[in-house]
Amino acid sequence: MSPAMKKTIGHRGIDPTGETTYKKTTSSALQGAIQLGITHTVGSLSQKPERDVLLQDFEVVESIFFPSEGSNLTPAHHYGDFRFKTYAPMAFRYFREMFGIRPDDYMYSLCNEPLIELSNSGASGSLFYVSSDDEYIIKTVQHKEAEFLQKLLPGYFMNLNQNKRTLLPKFYGLYCVQAAGKNIRIAVMNNLLPSAVKMHLKYDLKGSTYKRRASVKEREKAVPTYKDLDFMQDIHEGLLLEGDKYSAVCKTIQRDCLLLQSFKIMDYSLLVGIHNVNQACQEQASEEAGAVDQRRPQGQKSLYSTAIEAIQAEAGSMGSLDTEDKTGGIPARNSKGERLLVYIGIIDILQSYRLVKRLEHSWKALVHDGDTVSVHRPSFYAERFQKFMCNVVFRKISCKSRISVLAGVLKTNFAACTSMRIMQSGRPDLLPKTLLASDAVGTTTETAVSSSLENPGFASTSHPLPHSQDAYKSVGVDLNNTLSKDQEHSTTKR
Amino acid sequence: MSPAMKKTIGHRGIDPTGETTYKKTTSSALQGAIQLGITHTVGSLSQKPERDVLLQDFEVVESIFFPSEGSNLTPAHHYGDFRFKTYAPMAFRYFREMFGIRPDDYMYSLCNEPLIELSNSGASGSLFYVSSDDEYIIKTVQHKEAEFLQKLLPGYFMNLNQNKRTLLPKFYGLYCVQAAGKNIRIAVMNNLLPSAVKMHLKYDLKGSTYKRRASVKEREKAVPTYKDLDFMQDIHEGLLLEGDKYSAVCKTIQRDCLLLQSFKIMDYSLLVGIHNVNQACQEQASEEAGAVDQRRPQGQKSLYSTAIEAIQAEAGSMGSLDTEDKTGGIPARNSKGERLLVYIGIIDILQSYRLVKRLEHSWKALVHDGDTVSVHRPSFYAERFQKFMCNVVFRKISCKSRISVLAGVLKTNFAACTSMRIMQSGRPDLLPKTLLASDAVGTTTETAVSSSLENPGFASTSHPLPHSQDAYKSVGVDLNNTLSKDQEHSTTKR
C-alpha cells in the first residue's frame, strides 16, 4: 500500500512509516498476535477429548494472556503484551470438522506462513488478510458484529445440520486480540474467490436497483466488483445453468434466505465471480502466461467448494456438456454459449446492527423498489433477493439455448485450450467427443438465446418463502404465548 | 380398572362410574380430544411446505378450538368444547422424521384405534396410554415438565444431530388439551418395552443405593420393576455384552449423561427390560402358549429400536453368537450363559423441576452415597450413573465367560426352541451350526464366570465426563463473560 494513501476509514489507518494500522495497532503486530493466538488455541483444543457440542458451548469465551517476555504457557514475542480470546472454541471446532478442515491444516495454513494483507479492503474500514495458501480470509469485525455472530451460532448450527449445501459464509473461528486497551475482533472465513482462478467478472448482488451501480472509482480497478444494475445491463440473458443445477442453486438460496430472514438479517449480498473458460483459453493462447495460476498445490483439498457443493447433490448425470471442475465453480454458460465457471456465496450477513443507523437509506431504497410494508422488511428483502437471483441472475438452460451452447462449444478453438481443459477438468476423457464427431455446423448460425421465456420464474412456482402471511403466521402470533393460560411463571425467553 | 380403587394420586382420580379421570376430565373424553387434536394438527402440518427448522420454531404454539357442535375446521364431537394446542409443531415434525416416523403412520397409530389406558401407572399421578399397535406411549405431563421440555428442545436437537444413537426418550409430540378451564398436557413418546416381548425382569436403575429396593407392594406384581439393590443382589455378575456392544452402550450412556448434566438434570433412570430367550423357550415348550405374543404385525417397522440402535454402528461382524433381533433388544448373556435380549432407555428426564421440593431427600441420598460437594450434584449424579451402568450393570464378556456362554448355548434345548428362534431372529440360517457340530461338552462343567476381573471399569479408562474440574472449566469461568471489556450492552442470555 502506498504511503501516499493516508486516509483513515473507520478503525483502519496508516502509520507514519506507511504501515496499515487497526485501532492503532500495526498490521504486522496484529498478524503476529493472531498467529500466536491461533496456534495456542488450536493446540490446546486438540488436547481436550472429543465430545458433543452443547448449547452452552456457544457462549464460552476462552482467554489467554501473552506477555511479551513469555510465560510457561506462551512463548516470548515482540508484539507487546496482549490477551487472546477464542469465542465458542468447541462450537467452531465442530464447524471446522463439518467443513472438513483438519486442526493441523487449519493451524498450518494460518500460522506457519505470513498472512497476506489485502490492500483492496473496501469502504467498511475492516482489515482483510488471506492465508498464504489462499484458503482462508481473516477479517476484522466490529464489536456488534462479533456479538451478533455469537447470537447466530445456534441457528448456524441448525442450518449446517439441515442444509449442508448452504451458501452462507463458512465461519471457522472468532477471536479477539486485546492489546493496549483495545479489542480487535477477527473472524476466520472461507476464501470464496480463489486467486488461482482468474475472475473475468465480479458482482456484488442484492436484488435491489437503488444506487446499485459500481462507482467510477471502482470501475478503474483491474477487476471491478460490479453491482445489480451493471449485471442487468451486461449479462441481460443471465447465467445459464442446467436444469438440475439451477434448481439446486435456487433451493439453496431459498433455504439460506429463510434462515437470514428468521434472524432479521438484511443487506446481505450474493458475491458472484465468473471465470470465462473460453476467454481464458484465448488469453492463454495469446499470452502463454497462464490465466490460471498454478501456485495452488495439486493435491490440496479444495475449500473453494461452496458453490459447487450447493449443487452437487442434485447434479446427477444429466449428460451435461460441462466437465467437473476442481476449484468448486459451477459450470454455466453465457448467452454466447461460452463456458463459465461461476463462484458464488452469500456475504455480509453480520451487519444487521447497522440497521438503525442506515434506516433512512434502507427506507428510501425499499420505497424506491416498491416496498410499502416496512414492518416486513427482512422478509421483503429475502424475497426480492431470491427472485432476482433465480429470475434474473440464474436461468435454466432451455432447449433453444442448449442448441446455441452447442454452437458456442463448436466455435471454441479446442486446440488452443487442450492443456487448459485438462487442468480444469482433470478428466480429458470427458471432452465432448460426440460433438466433435458429429456435424452440428448447421446449428451454429443460431446464436440468439431466449431462455427467459422457458424460465417460469422461481418465486412464483415452488415453495414460497413462509413469511408473514403464510406458515410464519403461527410464529408471529404465538411466539410469546408458549404456555397456557394458567401459567404462573413467565417463560424464559431465548 | 376396578371401581374399588378410589385413590386419587396427584391429578389422577376415579369418577363415580369407576372411570379414571385426570383433572376431573374422564379418560375417555381426554382420549377423544387427543385423537381429534392430533388428527387435525398432523393433517394441517402436512399441508405446510417442507422447510428447515429454525430456532424460533421451538417456541411456537399452535392452537385450535374444537367446539362440540363442530366448526368449518373441526368435526362435531361429544367431549365438550376444548382447545387443542400443539407445541413446536415444526420441530417435532423434524424429530419424527429423524426417528423415521411417517406422518400417516403416526396419525394412524394414535388416532385410528382406541388408546389403551395403562392401569399400572405408578405413583407419579400421571395417566399413561399406549397406542393399540404398541408403538407409542402417551403420558400426561405437568405444567413444569412441559415447560422444561420446551426449554430442552434446542439441546435435544443438537444431541440428535450429533449422537444419533442416543438412549434419551424419543419425544414425538407435546400437546395440551384445554377443557373446562383446565390444561392437560401430554407428551407422545416411544414405547421402550414392547409388550409383544415378554420381559422376565424389569429394572429402574439410577446408580444409587439409597432406598433403591422395590417395595413389597411392587414385588407382588407379575413383573415388578426392581431397583438398583435388587439388581446387585440378583444379577451380581451383571449383563454380559460382547466387547464392541459394551463399548457402544457405554459411550452412548456417557454422551447422553453429558447432555443431561449440561441441563442440570438429575434423578433420571435407566429402564432395563430383560427378555430371557432360554427361559422363553422353556415356557413355550411347557405351555405351548407363546411367550412372544404374535399380535404385532410382521412387516411393521420396529420402533423398539432404541436399545439396538445404540450399538448398531459399532457392532461389526465380530462373530457374535447372537443373531439379529427384530424387536430392538441388545443380545446379551447372563452369568449362566443364557441368551438375553436387553431393552434399555433413559427415562424420567423432565422432572428436574422437582429438585427444589425434593432437595432434602436428594441431599440425604447423595450424602449417603458419598457426595460431599453439593454444588456439583448434576455432574456427580451423571458420573455415578455412568459408573454403575458400565461397571455393575453391563460388563464386557471375557474369554472365560465366553466359554461358559458356549456351555450355556449347548445346554439349551434347541429342539424346543426352533420356532422361537426363527421368529426372534428372522434368520434361521444364522444358528450356530459350528457349535452344534463340534464337541464342546468338555466345557459344560465350567459355569462360573468372572468377567468382572477382566472388566477394567468404564469410568476409569476412557473419556472422563468433562465436569467441573475439566473441559468444563472454561464454561464455568467464562460463561457470563462472553464479550470483552469494552462491551456496552449486556449480552442476550439464552
Automatic annotation (TrEMBL), chains A, B:
Localization in the cell: Cytoplasm
UniProt-listed Gene3D superfamilies: 2-Layer Sandwich, Phosphatidylinositol Phosphate Kinase II Beta
Region (Disordered): 1-22, 451-471
Ranges where the PIPK domain occurs: 26-393
Pfam families: PIP5K
SMART domains with a match to the protein in the record: PIPKc
Signal peptide residue numbers: none
Chief site of localization: cytoplasm
GO biological process terms, semicolon-separated: phosphatidylinositol phosphate biosynthetic process
UniProt keyword list: ATP-binding, Cytoplasm, Kinase, Nucleotide-binding, Transferase
GO cellular component: cytoplasm; plasma membrane
Domain of life: Eukaryota
SUPFAM superfamilies: SAICAR synthase-like
Biased composition (Polar residues): 451-463
Stored InterPro entries: PInositol-4-P-4/5-kinase_C_sf, PInositol-4-P-4/5-kinase_core, PInositol-4-P-5-kinase_N, PInositol-4/5-P-5/4-kinase
GO MF annotation terms: 1-phosphatidylinositol-4-phosphate 5-kinase activity; ATP binding
Protein name: Phosphatidylinositol-4-phosphate 5-kinase, type I, alpha, a
Species per Swiss-Prot/TrEMBL record: Sander lucioperca
